[in-house]
Amino acid sequence: MGIKMNRSITLVSFASLLLLTGYIDAEIMPSSVREGSISLGFEHTHSDNIRKTNTNQKSGYEQRVDLNVSYQNHTATNNSLLDYGLYYSHYSEADIEDESDIAGSLTISQQIFSKNLLLDLSHFRHSYLLDKAGVDLPNNNGNRDVFTVSPLWRLPYSKRAGFETRYTYTAVRLSDDKQQNTDRNGLSLSWYHDLNNKMTYRLSSQYSEVDFLLYELTYEQINVDMSLAGNLRNGSYLAKAGYSRLAILNRYEEGGIFQFSYHYRFQKNTLGLSVQRELTDSSLGLGKDTPDSGDINFDGTQLLWIDRVSLDHNFFAFNARFTNTNSLYYQQETPLITREVKPRSGISTQLSWKHTALLTTRFSASYSQTYIEKEFDKQQWLTSLSSEYRFHPKLTFSLTAQYEEQLNNEQMNGYDETRLIATVRFSH
How far apart are CA 30 and CA 205, in angstroms? Predict the structure, then answer.
C-alpha cells in the first residue's frame, strides 16, 4: 500500500500544547505567512506479497491516485494550518477491496473582536487497525475523526498577569467502533503570570464530562496543575505537574499527572525531549497517531493511564541539502480494570540528500514493537529507498523500493513484502 498520512495530535493536553507552540512560533515564525499548495499523484505499486500473508504468497499490484491540499496562514489575528489528502486505490486481486478515503488535519486559532478573545477549531482524521494483530489492508482499517471547538477568554489585570477561561467541546467518531464514540465538554480556569520576558507561570484547573454515546455512560474528571513555560538556552520548554481525579459509576481513580518537554536548537541540530503521564480514555487514540494506535479489542469502556517518553532529533548540513530526522519513543497503557501494563516502542530514521536542484534521494527505516496480549508481541520493520527527479517545477517522477516485515512470537500473522513503486506527481 502507499504511504498513509499520520498525525501526532494530543487533544488531552490541547491548552498546554498551544502555550508551548506560542513560544516557538514567536521566535521562529515571520510576522505574516500565507501560502498553500495542491498536488495530484498517480502511483503504481508492484508487490511480491500483495495479500501480506505467510502462506500462499502471490504477487500483484496496487494502482493509486491521490489529491493533497495544504495551506497555512499566520497573521497577527489568525493562525491556520490545513493538510488533507484524498486517495483511491485499486488492487489486482479481487479479494482485496478497492478503497478510497480522506485523512489529514485542520487547526484554526482566530481572534474575535480583540486579542483577548480567541476561537480555536481543530479536526483530525486518521486510520487505525481494527485487529491490531492483523495486517494493514483495506478490510482491517477504520477511521477516527476528532472535532474540537474551544473558545478562550483572557482577562488580564496587568501587563504581566491575568486569568484565562476556556470551554472545550470535543466529538470523537469512529467508523467501525461505535462503542468508543464520545462527546466531551470541558471548562478550565487558569491564572498566569509572566515572571520575565522568557518565563510564564500558570496555575490551572479543569473539569470535564465525557459521554459514551452507545452506552449512555458518563464519567467526570477534574485536573489541577501548575506549569512553567518559556525559553532557555536556545530552546523552548514546558514543565507541568498536577493531580487528576476520575469518577465513574461511584468508582474513583486518582493520581499524579505531569508533562515535560524541551526543544533545543544548537548549530545545525534540533533536539526534542518529551515525558508525559495522563489519565484518559481510549477514544482519543493512544498518544501516537499511527495505524496501530487504536485499541478496539476491549470490553466496554477503556479508561487508562498513559505514560510516554519520546526523543526527536533533526540535523541539516550543506545549506540544508542534507537532512536527517530521528525519533525514539516508549509508551505504556495501563487500563483501570485489568491493571495489565501494555507497552509499545519504536525507533525511526529518515535521510534526504539533494544531489542537484532536480534530483533528490531519500532513505528511511523504522522498527516498532506493540504488545497485543499476554505472550504475544507484534514487531514491524519497514525500510524505504527512493529517488525523485523534477522534470519541471510542477512535475516530479519518483521510484521507490520498500521492504516490510511483520513478526510475532506466535507466527500467526507474520509476513514479509517487497514493493516497487513508481509515482508521477503534479503540484501547484
Answer: 33
68: its cell numbers = 493533497
Using CA atoms, how far apart are residues 44 and 419, in angstroms rounded to an integer?
A: 10
Q: DSSP states of 297-338 as a string?
A: -SSS--EEEEEEEEEEEEEEETTTTEEEEEEEEEEEEEETTT
Can you tell me the distance from the alpha carbon of 357 to that of 77, in angstroms, rounded to the nearest whole number? 36
CA-closest candidate to residue 12, choices 334, 290, 286, 294 = 286
10 Å CB burial of residue 361 (0-12, 13-18, 19+) is middle
Provide the grid cell at 139: 478490510
Distance, in Å, from the CA atom of 231 to the CA atom of 263, rounded to the nearest integer, reads 9
Cell 500483495 appears where? 50
- What φ, ψ does residue 132 adopt, rounded to 5°? -65, -25
* Architecture of the domain defined by 14-39+65-416: Beta Barrel (2.40)
Please say if the pLDDT value at position 428 is more than 80: yes
Nearest-10 Cα torsion for 37, 42, 46, 51: 80
Runs of H (alpha helix) within 187-309: none
Q: Cell match 488580564: residue?
A: 156
The answer, as to whether pTM is greater than 0.70, is yes
37-56 pLDDT, tens digit per residue, is 999 999 999 999 998 888 88
Which whole number is the average pLDDT over 341-358?
Answer: 94
